[in-house]
Amino acid sequence: MPTINLTTTINAPIERCFNVARDIDVHVASTVHTGERAIAGRTSGLIELGENVTWRAKHFGIWQNLTSKITDFDYPTYFADEQVSCAFKSFRHEHYFEQQGAQTTMRDVFNYRSPLGWLGKLADWLFLKQYMTTLLVKRNEVCKAVAEQIGIN
């Protein structure tokens, strides 16, 4: 199972960072290059424990739908979302937040399983893990910029 670990330091309070990371509208802004939009469930604002969101986006030239659910939530230090349905066999994205003085460390742990057995493992090795890492880095760059510029609490 591939795992992607990212750490982002943000010059903003932990509560603001936590809320930006779970803001549907910020997520849409961070994935504009894929045409991603929320089409069902929570479609704007701050997603909460137990809520679903269905995303529609174009990846690898194919329009896809992905539904995830917030399965764990401990404001303002942790939340996790998990696959309900999508092209992956499974995924779990954990978001950790730690205040350090005037900065917040946002840490992502993204675990996923590709479909198609050994073909999926080959895709992971050839391109998929790097593609997913790039998506998450772009998302974190937008979260950082938004949290450092505006006050969402």
List keywords for this structure.
single chain; 153 residues; alpha+beta; Alpha-D-Glucose-1,6-Bisphosphate, Chain A, domain 4; 7-stranded antiparallel β-sheet; 3 helices; 7 strands; START-like_dom_sf; Cell division protein; cell cycle
Protein architecture, described:
The longest helix is centred in the C-terminal third of the chain and has 33 residues. The chain is built from three helices and seven strands; from the N terminus they run βααββββββα. The mean pLDDT is 92. By secondary structure, the chain is α+β, with helices and mostly antiparallel strands. The protein has one domain: Alpha-D-Glucose-1,6-Bisphosphate, Chain A, domain 4. It comes from Mucilaginibacter litoreus.
Summarize the structure.
The protein is of the alpha+beta class and about 150 residues long. The chain has one domain (about 5-150): START domain (Alpha-D-Glucose-1,6-Bisphosphate, Chain A, domain 4). It contains 3 helices and 7 strands.
How would a crystallographer describe the biggest sheet?
7 strands, antiparallel
- Look up the CATH topology: Alpha-D-Glucose-1,6-Bisphosphate, Chain A, domain 4
| Shape-level CATH architecture | 2-Layer Sandwich
Tell me, briefly, the overall form: globular
Strand order of the largest sheet: 1-7-6-5-4-3-2
The CATH superfamily name is START domain
Give the helix level as a range of percent: 25-40%
Fraction of residues in β-strands: 35-45%
Structural class: alpha+beta
C-alpha end-to-end distance:
35 Å
Order of helices and strands: EHHEEEEEEH
The strand count comes to 7
Classified by CATH, the class is Alpha Beta
Q: On the 0-100 scale, what is the average pLDDT?
A: 92
- Count of structural domains: 1
Which stretches are poorly predicted, pLDDT < 50 over at least 5 residues? Answer: none
Rg of Cα set: 15 Å
Tally the helices: 3
Protein name: Cell division protein
InterPro entries: START-like_dom_sf (IPR023393)
Organism: Mucilaginibacter litoreus
Keywords: Cell cycle, Cell division
